Amino acid sequence: MQSLTEVYRCEIDPQWVDYNAHLNDGYYALIFSLAGEGLFEALGLGAQWRDEMQRTIFTLDVRTRYLREVHAGSTLSIRAQLLDWDSRRMHFLLYMFVDGDSVVRATSEQVVMCIDPQVTRAAAFDSAAQQRIAALLELHRDAKKPVTVGRPLGLR
């Protein structure tokens, strides 16, 4: 987990805690969404890139796994693992940790796509972005991929 890229940090607001005395599931979605933006920034795919390249990023699929409780006042660290990519898409996993321990509290597996907003259609990442994405994948290549990645959702 040490080779993974920290992309977001926050403290849990007491208003985000539900009747079970832990982080409400809707706030996991918010935190992981902001962490995804942090990953895009780390890859140079932030606001400046969007303006200069006339591209944006849409989320295609998200799977959140709730593994351990998170309580009010906790400081969270979100780390990213790039799992795969092609010229238009990225597949990554976000891990949620509470500062001071190494227990994964939740994960968010995501697939995103580069979009040309002028026509709202898939578009390739520019070559410089592709080089940065490839470099991050290489950095994460030795990180163990959880067995849950890509698993279908269901009861049986």
- The CATH topology label is Thiol Ester Dehydrase, Chain A
Q: Please tally the helical runs, counting DSSP H or I stretches of 4 or more residues.
A: 3
Q: What is the averaged pLDDT score? A: 94
The backbone outline, from C-alpha atoms, is globular
Radius of gyration: 16 Å
- By DSSP, the count of extended strands is 6
CATH superfamily membership: Hotdog Thioesterase
Structural domain tally: 1
Strand content: 25-35%
Report the CATH architecture: Roll
- State the secondary-structure class: alpha+beta
**Topology order in helix (H) and strand (E) letters:** EHHEEEEEH
- Alpha carbon gap, first and last residue: 31 Å
Helix content: 25-40%
Q: In the CATH hierarchy, what is the class? A: Alpha Beta
Keywords: Hydrolase
Pfam families: 4HBT_2 (PF13279)
Protein name: Acyl-CoA thioester hydrolase
InterPro entries: HotDog_dom_sf
Could you describe the 3D structure shown?
This protein is an alpha+beta fold. It has one domain: Hotdog Thioesterase (Thiol Ester Dehydrase, Chain A). 25% of the residues lie in helices and 35% in strands. The chain contains 3 helices and 6 strands, in the order βααβββββα. The protein is globular, with a radius of gyration of 16 Å. The mean pLDDT is 94.
